[in-house]
């Protein structure tokens, strides 16, 4: 193992009774990296983070933080780590100042070191206005900042942050992400989130987990290129072009697009009442815009819009994890039954509520204060 590996997970497996929460999860995070840890609800992100931060032990596998084994050297590991759990446990009766002082003492900082660090943490986390306030009076966003503050107070080289921006408003989200970018300049960060634009803003690399397994690990560009598919959006005027006899019907345009070489799927998308709009997924890099253009001109139709883009991180995320989300909603795994999804809405809502309940129970049972 190279010496700049700050987080090392090796074949981590975790069983909760018969539930396989993690299935041989392995990855390394190197010094200075800010890595996004992605996956749908229940994929195993928090479980992995709890193992890495010595809160629970795995069923099998090993993990090291800064070269220290998380089971054999938990004290050394905790000194190197700042951890923000998914729901940060804060003492609501304490002021922000006294809470940060308390967490600093727990981590062995003396009063002089605490004051020095406090100045920095207040600046980086934007806590100056609330230092004297009771935590219970703070908005959720400020509580998250306090949570981030306690994770940073002992100046750890490694940060593990479990959904630091969940439930924040868009302004607060953007601020917390900019703090993470700022602190990440000098630290190694593993950051879980459901917000892909945050990963794009803060991380150069991402690890995607699904059903307890790592399904992608690489730079964002590598992950975007993973499916090797390109998307085109085409829209054709509903009126007839001059000189042609018949206005095109949607099915006719769709059928014609489907005959083009390399097309994987053609799907009608909403458009205004003047146009038929389609999304095409194409295998391979070859640019088929000229073929699309020529075919439409040959048919005597009028092209209103044509553009091509690579798959987004969100597309790849959905591709890699869709089976899991659909299973969680009690839906069949076939991809082609989108029309049927509407009729499943009722059952889906109930299932989602159930899983939320489970999640919060689970957190209150498992998160301890360190
Ligand atoms: N203490 C527990 N007891 C039983 N099952 C658990 C426990 N903790 C987690 N699980 C299960 O392990 C799996 C992974 O859960 P985990 O909390 O790690 O997912 P996650 O990726 O963090 O999801 P989310 O995005 O909802 O936070 C889920 O099936 C969950 O129900
Ligand atoms: Mg979680």
Blueprint (SSEs and pairs):
Elements (H helix, E strand, L loop, with lengths): L4 E12 L2 E12 L3 E5 L6 H8 L7 E6 L2 E2 L4 H7 E4 L11 H11 L4 H15 L14 H13 L5 E5 L7 H15 L3 E5 L3 H7 L2 E6 L2 E7 H5 L4 E9 L12 H9 L4 E7 L5 E9 L5 H10 L4 E8 L2 H16 L9 H4 L3 H22 L4
Parallel strand pairs: 3-8, 3-9, 6-7, 7-8
Antiparallel strand pairs: 1-2, 1-4, 4-5, 9-10, 11-13, 11-14, 12-13
The structure holds adenosine-5'-triphosphate (ATP) and magnesium ion (MG).
Description of the molecule:
This protein is of the alpha/beta class and 370 residues long. The protein folds into 2 domains: 5-223, P-loop containing nucleotide triphosphate hydrolases (Rossmann fold); 229-310, Alpha-Beta Plaits. It has helices at 45-52, 74-80, 96-106, 111-125, 140-152, 170-184, 196-202, 220-224, 250-258, 289-298, 313-328, 338-341, 345-366, and strands at 5-16, 19-30, 34-38, 60-65, 68-69, 81-84, 158-162, 188-192, 205-210, 213-219, 229-237, 263-269, 275-283, 303-310. A hairpin with a 5-residue loop joins β12 and β13 (275-283). The radius of gyration is 25 Å and the shape is elongated. It starts with a strand and ends with a helix. The structure holds adenosine-5'-triphosphate and magnesium ion (MG). Adenosine-5'-triphosphate binds at residues 16, 19, 21, 39, 41-47, 86, 358-359, 362, 365-366.
Rough outline: elongated
Tell me the strand percentage band: 25-35%
Order of helices and strands: EEEHEEHEHHHEHEHEEHEHEEHEHHH
Poorly predicted runs of 5 or more residues: 331-370
| C-alpha Rg (nearest Å) | 25 Å
Average pLDDT level: 83
CATH architecture of the largest domain: 3-Layer(aba) Sandwich
Kindly report how far apart the N and C termini lie.
29 Å
Bound molecules: adenosine-5'-triphosphate, magnesium ion
CATH C-level class of the largest domain is: Alpha Beta
Work out the count of structural domains.
2
Helix-and-strand structural type: alpha/beta
Number of strands: 14
Number of helix segments?
Answer: 13
């Amino acid at each position: 193992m190279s010496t700049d590996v700050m987080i090392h997970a090796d074949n981590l497996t975790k069983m909760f009774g018969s539930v396989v929460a993690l299935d041989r999860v392995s990855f390394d995070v190197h010094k200075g990296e800010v890595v996004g840890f992605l996956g749908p609800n229940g994929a195993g992100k928090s479980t992995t983070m709890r193992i890495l931060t010595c809160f629970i032990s795995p069923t099998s596998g090993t993990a090291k933080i800064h070269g220290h084994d998380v089971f054999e050297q938990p004290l050394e590991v905790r000194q190197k780590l700042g951890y923000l759990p998914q729901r940060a446990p804060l003492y609501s009766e304490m002021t922000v100042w006294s809470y940060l002082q308390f967490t600093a003492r727990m981590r062995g900082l003396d009063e002089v070191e605490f004051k020095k660090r406090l100045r920095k943490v207040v600046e980086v986390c934007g806590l100056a206005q609330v230092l004297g306030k009771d935590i219970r009076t703070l908005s959720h966003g400020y509580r998250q900042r306090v949570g981030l503050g306690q994770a940073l107070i002992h100046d750890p080289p490694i940060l593990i942050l479990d959904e630091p921006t969940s439930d924040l408003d868009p302004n607060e989200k953007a601020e917390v992400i900019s703090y993470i970018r700022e602190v990440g300049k000098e630290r190694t960060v593993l950051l879980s989130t459901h917000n892909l634009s945050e990963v794009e803003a803060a991380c150069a690399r991402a690890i995607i987990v699904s059903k307890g397994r790592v399904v992608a690990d690489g730079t964002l560009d590598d992950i975007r290129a993973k499916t090797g598919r390109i998307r085109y959006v085409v829209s054709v005027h509903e009126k007839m072009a001059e000189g042609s006899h018949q206005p095109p019907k949607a099915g006719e345009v769709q059928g014609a697009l489907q005959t083009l070489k390399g097309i994987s799927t053609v799907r009608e998308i909403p458009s205004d009442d003047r146009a038929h709009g389609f999304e095409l997924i194409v295998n391979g890099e070859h640019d088929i815009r000229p073929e699309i253009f020529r075919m439409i001109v040959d048919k005597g139709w009028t092209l209103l819009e044509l553009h091509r883009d690579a798959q987004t991180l969100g597309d790849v995320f959905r591709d890699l994890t869709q089976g899991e989300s659909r299973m969680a909603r009690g839906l069949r795994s076939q991809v082609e039954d989108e029309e049927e999804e509407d009729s499943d809405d009722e059952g889906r809502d109930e299932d989602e509520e159930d899983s939320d309940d489970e999640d919060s129970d689970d957190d209150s049972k498992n998160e301890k204060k360190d």
